[in-house]
Design goal:
Elements lengths: L10 H15 L36 E9 L8 E9 L6 E9 L6 E5 L13 H5 L3 E5 L20 H27 L5 E7 L1 H12 L6 E5 L5 H7 L2 H8 L6 H15 L28 E2 L2 E2 L2 H12 L25 E3 L6 E3 L3 H11 L12 H15 L11 H5 L3 E7 L7 H15 L1 H7 E6 L12 E2 L2 H11 L5 E5 L5 E5 L3 E5 L11 E5 L9
Parallel strand pairs: 4-5, 4-6, 6-7, 7-12, 12-13
Antiparallel strand pairs: 1-2, 2-3, 3-5, 8-9, 10-11, 14-15, 15-16, 17-18
Helix pairs in contact: 1-3, 3-4, 5-10, 6-8, 12-13
Length: 533
């Protein structure tokens, strides 16, 4: 089933929003525009109206439910905090939008902030951009909280309005509405508009570039869930394998396998021993060498290794056809391969990630009582195909045609941890290379750059050097036309290290301190073999 054509504030409605906002602004004096970035950092732009006056702002299909001044504190500037609801003219969908406006410190820019998991976003995420001088906005994308139960109505029927709002419509509605509020409050449009998100937020940003290429000038997309239906369905693959093979593997065996792979390939790519695989796709570790290894939870068997191998291989159909990617070496098995002790039988049983259960019950099977333990290989394949058919366009941000976003001079800085257990980095690489196929390498670098962080987990964490400020690198690219070749990163002990632009990896050269970023150079990495059966 395909989603209905998207609703929302298209170009015609955007014009109406701008007209509505300007009609309110005309009663106030016009704010003085901030100088452009090339002339130096913009001077703060003051508002042209009182915060409380935004309660009277009239926008199509939109209700201002609160416009409250906040005095701020020692770390947070004074601001005007606006809450709005935006109604869908075609169905019953309603999204909540939060817009935080600096009172005295606006830098002339707008920042949209994304969500995570099944959360569209929250007001709490706006404090950081507000403190940095941005007018910022977020949305719940049509449902409260982070649970994935919103896909079904209370009577068990599909809630397509909520699904579509989460897919892409809610963020676009937020963006258009927030810009109208900003224009009204300050008397001018933002000079630049940015998106900042990771995981679901990364997907939301890419969806904006693909479906609404006029919304943002720059997009930071971390660990993006690009192929959402493939990823979200494929996450339970390891549990299905353990169930069908009647072999729930305890955690310490997975931990032993992870440690062995890292030890075997520690110097691959980066050339140093640091507990991180610098180039996982050059790691030729053979899991079969672990058979017979003693662990605190038993001896690793050939059957255990088979489960691990299929987790690295990724979901496959009953005839062996490619469905989706698995884990690279160095990515933890934890989380997706959790098992627990059944108190009734005393045996280990699978314990899937709750997000995977929500997804299958409330979006794919449309059955809140679905028992995942009834899913065999043929049924998994059927559910996988159903998920892709239903949500490939609605929730998947996998369209490689970024030509219109590029014509608008938009920039996407995409980064992903190579040790991400939840959203496999292979899907992100797949997307990047399909964009290269679509636009060509040169044009791709003009609009999209990918950075892979060795040893870094989902949106951060892990043993690798953590990206320190990729958002600033994006702003510099957009405003100063200085595209990044590397990202700055910091190790747990305070050392510095570069993260190279794909397909390169940072390799330690010469002698000296491995914590000195200047002692690394970017060398070609091993390119992943895509979609191999």
């Amino acid at each position: 089933m395909r989603s209905r054509p998207h609703r929302g504030h298209g170009r015609a409605t955007l014009a109406a929003l701008a007209t509505a906002a300007s009609s309110l602004v005309l009663i106030a004096p016009t704010a003085q525009a901030a100088p452009g970035p090339r002339g130096g950092e913009p001077q703060p732009v003051p508002p042209v109206m009182a915060c409380a006056d935004l309660a009277d702002l009239q926008l199509p299909g939109t209700t201002v439910t609160a416009a409250v001044p906040d005095a701020g504190d020692a770390t947070t500037p004074a601001s005007c905090r606006v809450t709005l609801t935006v109604e869908d003219p075609e169905d019953d969908g309603v999204v909540t939008v939060w817009v935080y406006l600096p009172q005295d410190t606006w830098n002339g820019r707008f920042q949209g902030v994304g969500g995570g998991g099944f959360s569209g976003g929250s007001a709490e995420r706006l404090i950081a951009p507000l403190t940095a001088g941005y007018a910022a906005a977020a949305t719940d994308a049509g449902h409260e909280g982070s649970a994935g139960t919103f896909g079904l109505n209370p009577d068990g029927t599909p809630d397509w309005a909520a699904r579509e709002d989460f897919g892409h419509e809610g963020v676009h509605d937020m963006t258009v509405t927030a810009k109208a509020v900003i224009s009204a409050y300050y008397g001018q449009d933002p000079a630049y508009s940015y998106w900042n998100g990771c995981s679901t937020g990364g997907r939301q940003g890419l969806m904006e570039a693909q479906k609404y290429p006029d919304d943002y000038d720059g997009i930071l997309a971390g660990a993006p869930v690009i192929n959402f239906p493939e990823m979200q369905t494929g996450q339970i693959w390891g549990q299905i394998v353990m169930l069908q093979e009647d072999n729930p593997v305890p955690a310490c065996k997975f931990e032993t396998a992870l440690a062995a792979a890292v030890e075997a390939c520690d110097t691959v790519g980066d050339g140093i021993v640091d507990g991180v695989i610098g180039d996982p796709f050059a790691c030729d570790f053979d899991l079969a060498t672990l058979v017979g290894t003693e662990t605190p939870c038993g001896v690793i068997t050939a059957e255990d290794v088979a489960v691990m191998q299929r987790s690295h291989e990724g979901p496959r159909g009953t005839d062996g056809r490619f469905l989706w990617y698995g884990l690279p070496y160095g990515a933890p098995y934890a989380g997706l391969h959790d098992v627990t002790l059944d108190p009734d039988t005393g045996r280990l049983v699978g314990n899937p990630f709750i997000y995977d259960i929500w997804w299958l019950r409330y979006f794919v099977a449309d059955d809140p009582e679905l028992d995942w333990r009834t899913i065999d290989y043929p049924e998994f394949e059927r559910l996988f195909d159903e998920a892709v058919a239903r949500y490939g366009d609605m929730m998947g941000a996998s369209d490689p045609d970024l030509s219109e976003f590029r014509r608008n001079h938009g920039k996407i800085l995409m980064w992903h941890g190579l040790a991400d257990f939840g959203v496999t980095v292979k899907g992100t690489i797949d997307y990047f290379e399909r964009v290269e196929d679509e636009l060509g390498p040169g044009r791709t670098r003009q609009v999209l750059r990918l950075f892979l962080a060795p040893g870094v987990g989902h949106c951060g964490g892990g043993a690798g050097a953590q990206p320190s400020d990729p958002f600033s690198a994006l702003v510099t690219w957009v405003e100063d036309n200085r595209p990044p070749k590397t990202l700055d990163a910091v190790t747990a002990d305070g050392g510095e290290r570069p993260i190279c632009m794909y397909p390169y990896v940072a390799r330690f050269v010469g002698r000296g301190d491995p914590g000195d970023a200047g002692r690394y150079r970017c060398v070609p990495a091993t390119r992943m073999e895509l979609r191999q059966p």
